[in-house]
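U., I forgot to send this yesterday:
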Amino acid sequence: MKNDTYVLIPVFNEEEVLENIITEIKKEGYSNIIVVDDGSTDNTYEVVKKQKVIVLRHLLNRGKGAAIKTGFEAAKLLKAEIIITVDGDGQHDPKDIKKLVKKIDEGYDVVLGFRRMKLDSMPLIKIVYNYIANLSTWAIYGFWTCDSQSGIRGYSKKAISVINTKNDGYEYESEVLREIAWHKLKSVEVPINVFYTKYSRSKKHKQSLSNGIRTVLKMIITS
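Result:
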C-alpha cells in the first residue's frame, strides 16, 4: 500500500470497539492511521494510545466535523495524498477502503461510500432519516447523492486543500457535498457494506430527530 494514504477515524466514547477496528484496518494493509479522540469520557484515549497509530485529542467534545477537520490538518502536515474517513463505531467494512483508494487513483477528488437502503440491511428509521437528509441536501446545496450521511469517504490531496466547512457536528457530512459542488470537484459514489450491530445501534446521538432538525437548520444558516 502507498505510504501517502491515511485512514482517519474520528471517535467519541468508542473504547469497546476501537482496538478491533484498528486491527482490521491494519490487516487490509493500511498502517497510516490517524485517530482523533473528540473529548471522550470513557477509556477511548487510553485504548488508542496502546496502538501504533497517530492519536490526537480534543479535551472537550466538539463534534464529528471538528474531529475530522483536526485530522485533515494533521494529514496535510504528514503530506498525505489520500485520506479515507471511517466511522469509529465499527459499522464500516475495512475491506471497502481499497475501493475508495482505487477511485482516487483513477482521478476522482472525492469518493462517497453509499449504503444500500434496503430493510434487510438497514433499519427502517435510518432509511427514513437518510432519505430526508438526501432531499434536504439537494434542496439546499443542489447536490444529489444516494447517501448524504455516509461516514466512509475518500479525499484526494486537491479536495483536502479546498474543502472548507463551517460546522463542527454531523452536518459536516452534508457540508462536504456543498464544497464538492462549489469547487467543481470530481466525485463518484461507490457501494459499501455496513454492519448494524447492537453496539452501533446504541449510538442514539447519531440518529435522533432533534439532531436531524438541528443539522438542517445549520445547513440553511451556513449555505
